[in-house]
Design a protein that fits this description.
Blueprint: E1 12-18, E2 21-28, E3 31-36, H1 48-52, E4 54-55, H2 63-76, H3 95-104, E5 113-114, H4 115-121, H5 128-136, E6 149-150, H6 163-173
Helix pairs in contact: 3-5, 4-5
Length: about 190
């Protein structure tokens, strides 16, 4: 049986058709490296992995990627899907950012918290802005659900191309209540 090399040497990506549009998954041998949400440019080159990744064939997809695809499709159809078991490649993140992202990953479908609450959960209650920056560096939105973290005064920021509009869509899809008057401030 032929061994397929998957990892940092040969970054791979897969396009997943969703009701909202194409979503792109990219992975390394350590786990999921990036997610480009629907309505974001498919050829984003903000990281080396995105730039070098090539489209994978079904044979090149690890089992966890093949298992993830129908779950993503179900999520965009409105099903309550959790992604905590998906391996994520945390390389390149600081220890603090990794702690923030791992804590964010514990938020359940439809559950929200505030930036300040997340700062407290990672043991840095005064690091609210640092939490915002950490979430802004999240390469795997949806899998690490940074859209579930809200500002004190409302919705808060989101680093996807359509920003707060995408955040609002994801929260509404999950049934999380978001006021029409939600502030679009970052913290």
């Amino acid at each position: 049986m032929e061994k397929i090399a998957v990892g940092a040497e040969t970054p791979l990506k897969l396009v997943v058709a969703t009701r909202r549009g194409p979503l792109v998954l990219g992975w390394s041998s350590r786990g999921l490296d990036f997610v480009d949400l629907p309505e974001e440019p498919l050829e984003i080159e903000t990281s080396k992995a995105r730039h070098e990744a090539r489209l994978a064939t079904a044979r090149e997809c690890p089992p966890w990627v093949l298992h993830l695809v129908p779950r993503i499709e179900a999520y965009f159809e409105g099903s309550a899907v959790e992604f905590r078991d998906v391996p994520v490649d945390f390389s390149g993140y600081t220890d603090f950012t990794r702690r923030v992202l791992e804590e964010t990953r514990q938020l359940s479908y439809g559950e929200t918290c505030r930036y300040r609450d997340l700062a407290s959960r990672v043991g840095q209650p005064k690091a609210v802005r640092a939490v915002g920056r950490a979430l802004g560096s999240n390469r795997t939105p949806l899998i690490i659900p940074c859209h579930r973290v809200l500002a004190m005064s409302g919705l808060g920021g989101f680093s996807s191309r359509r920003g707060p509009e995408t955040k609002r869509f994801l929260l509404e899809l999950e049934g999380a209540l978001v006021s029409d008057e939600a502030s679009l401030s970052f913290f």
